[in-house]
Fold:
Amino acid sequence: MERKKNITVLLIVLLTGLLLNPAAGQNHDELFFECYTTTNMEPWRKTMEQMAAQREPGNYDQLFEVVLAWYGYIGYCLGNDKEDEAEKFLKTGWDYLEELTEMPEADAAPHALKSGFYGFEMALARYKAMVLGPRSLSALKTSAAIDSTNIHYLVEKGNQLYYVPSIFGGDKEEALHHYKHAVELMEAGSKYHQGHWFYLNTLVTLGFSYQSMEQVENARSTYLKIQQIAPRFKWFNEDVWPRFVEKYGTSKE
Structure:
């Protein structure tokens, strides 16, 4: 009887914890994917802060997931006129990222993310571009020297090539090549599966890149893939796809 009582108490404690903290019973990837596709980012913020507070000291994988969550949330803030919040989380994000890059396990990815963080800094203060631009490029060079086939390097290098004016070395066609390669590597691996927000985000970026290069059918097939993966993708369904259909139609003429 005493053993059954102890098991019952344990179950009650576990269930109570899950009810008070739903994220504890849900995989982080699933939760972030749901937040990304519904644009309800409050659970994302709470979960990433919880991840940061509960991480084990010296655990590279845990800290990397924290930094990636910060990266996604800051990007969301900048895309939705939440500059003050973006600036706030960028400060703490830098602390985590610096710690990550100094760990012995650090590969190309943290240095690529550092380039992205410099991009966030420039988005918040464009007058700093002359100083931060070279730092961003330097971080990319470090990342490439470690592994030029790293997914995060390919995405950030693509961003640099896409957004920098051609007079300063930008090249949208080359950017497209990098985005495409990143997606291919994600689809061939298991880390960034179809239910991961970073894969979906990169797929959207690839679609935009195809569209900007007037590769309409490639853009269409990419967007249709997005619809299959995330049929309830709010921002895509309400903005991206309708704009594309208005200009190019739903199918090839």
Summary: The CA atoms of residues 14 and 20 lie 10 Å apart.
